[in-house]
Predict the structure.
Amino acid sequence: MAGNDLGSLLGGLLGGGGQSGSSGGGAGNILGALLGALGGGASGNGGGSPLGGLMDMLTKSGLVDQAQSWVGSGENKAVSGRQIAEALPDETLQKVAEQNGVSPQQAADQIAQSLPQAVDKLTPTGQIPSGTSLEDLIKQQSL
């Protein structure tokens, strides 16, 4: 449930209502499924957010420069589907792929394509917010 709601919100944030971004809604759905799988979307456990957990995971997997470029100001560095697949736990990627009706590699490619923009938009202050649910954060960013 939360994954679908989160996917809708992320799709809106990424411009999923329209024509120009053919995969805005799909990107939102796949990112919603990913963040839902990592921490439930709403109010994770403890003080951490699913976004913070994901960024920690990417950083520990050697994607420090890319992850920091998405949070900070300036150009967002690209990441490949292969790098995403290596950074995420296999069971998480499998779950996300199943929920979206794609292969794990297709899911990793879609995540790699949309994650930099999503993180950039969710961190306008240059920091990963804490104490705010992901849904609230997305709503704040999309008007």
